[in-house]
Specification:
Elements: E1 2-4, H1 6-12, H2 15-31, E2 40-44, E3 47-56, E4 59-67, E5 79-87, E6 93-98, H3 99-118, E7 125-129, H4 133-145, E8 150-154, H5 161-171, E9 176-179, H6 183-188, E10 192-195, H7 208-211, E11 215-218, H8 231-234, E12 240-242, H9 247-250, H10 252-260, E13 268-270, H11 271-275, E14 287-290, H12 295-312, E15 316-317
Parallel strand pairs: 1-6, 7-8, 7-10, 8-9, 10-11, 11-14, 12-13, 12-14
Antiparallel strand pairs: 1-15, 2-3, 3-4, 4-5, 5-6
Helix pairs in contact: 1-12, 2-3, 2-12, 3-4, 3-12
Length: about 325
């Protein structure tokens, strides 16, 4: 079995590989040629353990993820994970991958595809709400699909925004990255806004004048009790784009508006339908892409990382 660390993964693939893997996952979902049981959520003492399996093609993958929100106070990541890739015909374990890095990369790729398919090509400014690991990768991938020249950052809970900006600037030296004092300043300076928080209440204000005409990418809310977006946004939308239909149940950013009648079920489309040409939207209007993630993203990312690592002889082979 091949063991692939964070550095191994980064050396094995580039962002274009990961964007392609995310697109493959979305199109695979549309084809129906897969088996992906609902993810298992195990809640204990305010923490969450997720178990995410997916079967397709010649492989299957299982991801184990732990989400410990209190880790920030300890100076540790709030998310840890492991992905096991196995042969789909024999069950043989092929690779054990750093799941935290794979998750950050594949989520960044999914968010970037959402941005690419719901916003104009000439979009140049984005706002980033949430200066954590996910926010960092969302910014990197967004700059891969759009010619971004300015990023506004806001996170009232992050103790070292300037440190975050310095680290991000090292990867994006040609992009002007600035800290914003409040969410209103960020919205005024951004054409698109990416949220990656664990908030239980909207981080975007319900001021229609600040919302209209902007493009929103929601990453943070993955439970029915979590919301990043206000009711006012959904009243402005003709369509909502999701990575998976499960988002309608798993995220409070969709479950609540649907229950309240702010949007209808027939207004919610998967991103795969946009990519395949089955659905079209007006990218000049107010648009919202909501991602909760799915195991197919992990499977497709693990496959391409494993393939590239074998080609480049990266990683450590071990006998179980």
């Amino acid at each position: 079995m091949l063991i692939l660390s964070e550095n191994d993964i980064l050396n094995a693939v580039d962002f274009n590989d990961l964007l392609k893997s995310a697109e493959n996952a979305l199109l695979l979902q549309e084809s129906g040629e897969f088996f992906m049981p609902d993810r298992v959520h195990l809640h204990h003492q305010g923490n969450v353990q997720l178990i995410m399996p997916a079967f397709a093609n010649d492989h299957f993958a299982t991801k184990l993820v732990s989400v410990y929100p209190g880790n920030r106070k300890l100076g540790k990541p709030s998310l840890y994970g492991t992905v096991i890739l196995q042969d789909g015909h024999t069950g043989e374990p092929l690779a054990l991958l750093n799941g935290a890095k794979l998750t950050a990369l594949r989520t960044g790729a999914a968010g970037a595809l959402g941005l690419a398919w719901t916003s104009p090509r000439n979009l140049e400014t984005i706002g980033l709400v949430g200066a954590g690991v996910q926010g960092f990768h969302q910014a990197l991938f967004a700059c891969t699909v759009r010619n971004i020249n300015k990023i506004a950052v806001f996170d009232p809970y992050h103790k070292d925004i300037q440190g975050f900006i310095r680290e991000l600037s090292a990867f994006l030296p040609e992009v002007k990255i600035t800290e914003q004092k409040n969410i209103h300043e960020l919205l005024n300076q951004s054409e698109a806004v990416i949220t990656s928080t664990t908030s239980l209440k909207p981080v975007i204000p319900g001021d229609v004048s600040l919302i209209n005409g902007k493009h929103f990418i929601g990453i943070g809310s993955y439970r029915p009790d979590m919301r990043e977006y206000p009711d006012a946004l959904f009243k402005q939308l003709s369509a909502v784009i999701v990575d998976t239909p499960l988002a309608k149940k798993e995220s409070g950013d969709l479950a609540s508006p649907l229950k309240m009648g702010l949007i209808r079920e027939d207004q919610v489309y998967t991103l795969g339908k946009l990519i395949s040409g089955k659905v079209k939207i007006d990218d000049t209007q107010t648009n919202f892409f909501k991602s909760v993630g799915m195991a197919l993203f992990d499977l497709e990312a693990a496959e391409i990382i494993y393939s590239r690592a074998k080609q480049k002889q990266i990683g450590q082979e071990v006998e179980l």
